[in-house]
Design brief:
Blueprint: H1 4-30, E1 38-43, E2 50-55, E3 61-67, H2 76-96, H3 105-111
Helix pairs in contact: 2-3
């Protein structure tokens, strides 16, 4: 009976550790999601340009910009840069409720 108790303790400890690590991994991945709104990147296969559009959670277009480079939205860095530009667009939208024009929020993020 004494050998079963340490074995049970070890199994419970391993299960707790596994649950803890998987919860932490989910938190890290969720940090790439924008706090408010969302973005869409469109590109043509043979074009070097991308069209980036930002929307509110209600799917209302608040900003769009043509970027003269290909954006790899699978990269974490690209997602973070798009989220920064989205936050700027959301700030202006919440303050004015107008679609800003002649801004380069996305291009500026990728020039750095």
């Amino acid at each position: 009976m004494n050998t079963i108790t340490p074995l049970r303790t070890a199994i419970v400890a391993i299960l707790c550790l596994t649950a803890s690590l998987s919860a932490q991994a989910q938190t890290i991945n969720n940090s790439l999601a924008p706090r408010e709104g969302f973005w869409v990147v469109e590109s043509q296969p043979k074009s070097r340009n991308c069209l980036v559009r930002f929307y509110t959670n209600d799917q209302k277009l608040i900003y769009e910009e043509t970027v003269h480079c290909k954006l790899n939205v699978a990269r974490t860095h690209t997602k973070r840069q798009l989220n920064v530009a989205l936050e700027r667009a959301m700030f202006v939208w919440n303050a004015t409720h107008q679609v800003p024009t002649d801004r380069q929020w996305v291009s500026v993020q990728f020039e750095k």
